[in-house]
């Protein structure tokens, strides 16, 4: 089964890498986007191809409009874009009393701006009123949008909250154009980036508050995303799906 071309931003590591592999196994031809780590993206492609799937690594910085344009033009050369996973994002410690405009811009650019403008490019290609055949957009949000985030992560939580609102609005705007839009909101997930930024003690404290008593794995989030991309979720749009182990 071939589902079409799927663009996954930040596809070289963590949730993005796991999503690329799971989606390829489900029949998608995956565009593994990365900004700097070419080796990680190449390893993801190699794993997919070894399992019989199709994937292409594409370097592009999606925090710039030029990078987003280049990414989707590269995807066009592979085939019709039918899916987008807005996974690229970032967080940084900055308490409000110490917040600078640069901190603010960095959080909003990496978490909201990239989501909005990648979605724009996807809609331009998928919308039936533009000659497209429809498609699916899945945004990767965060439980922080509900919980408020840890101290120093207020702007991260705010940016992810904006992604929630964008999801609902975009779903209304493009639903009759053949496009579904959903967001998954992971809680604490065991990735190298998360463990490095949180630190062992902070991660232990966060884990203690989780009903299931453990962090989630990237593959668990990837399976949820792959479901939302599939025909099995054909009546789901504007939906925010939490995957936080009960927190």
From TrEMBL:
Task: Family membership, please give it.
Answer: Belongs to the short-chain dehydrogenases/reductases (SDR) family.
Question: Which intervals hold domain Ketoreductase?
Answer: 4-192
| SMART domains assigned | PKS_KR
Q: A single GO molecular function, which one? A: oxidoreductase activity
Q: What is this protein called?
A: NAD(P)-dependent dehydrogenase, short-chain alcohol dehydrogenase family
Q: Which CDD domains match?
A: SDR_c
What the entry lists under InterPro entries is as follows: KR_dom, NAD(P)-bd_dom_sf, SDR_fam
What keywords would UniProt list here?
Oxidoreductase
């Amino acid at each position: 089964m071939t589902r079409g071309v799927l663009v996954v931003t930040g596809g070289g590591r963590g949730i993005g890498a796991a999503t690329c592999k799971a989606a390829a196994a489900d029949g998608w031809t995956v565009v593994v986007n990365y900004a700097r780590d070419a080796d990680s993206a190449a390893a993801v492609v190699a794993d997919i191809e070894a399992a019989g799937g199709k994937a292409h690594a594409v370097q592009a910085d999606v925090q710039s409009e030029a990078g987003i344009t280049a990414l989707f033009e590269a995807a066009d050369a592979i085939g019709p874009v039918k899916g987008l996973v807005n996974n690229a994002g970032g967080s940084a410690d900055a308490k409000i009393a110490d917040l600078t405009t640069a901190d603010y811009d960095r959080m909003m650019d990496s978490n909201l701006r990239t989501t909005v403008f990648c979605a724009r490019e996807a809609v331009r290609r998928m919308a039936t009123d533009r000659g497209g055949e429809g498609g699916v957009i899945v945004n990767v949000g965060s439980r922080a949008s509900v919980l408020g985030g840890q101290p120093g992560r207020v702007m991260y939580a705010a940016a992810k909250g904006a992604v929630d609102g964008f999801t609902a609005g975009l779903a209304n705007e493009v639903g009759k154009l053949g496009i579904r839009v959903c967001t998954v909101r992971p809680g604490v997930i065991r990735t190298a980036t998360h463990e490095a930024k949180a630190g062992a003690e902070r991660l232990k404290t966060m884990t203690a508050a989780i009903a299931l008593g453990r962090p989630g794995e990237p593959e668990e989030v990837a399976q949820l995303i792959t479901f939302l991309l599939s025909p099995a979720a054909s009546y789901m749009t504007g939906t925010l799906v939490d995957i936080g182990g009960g927190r």
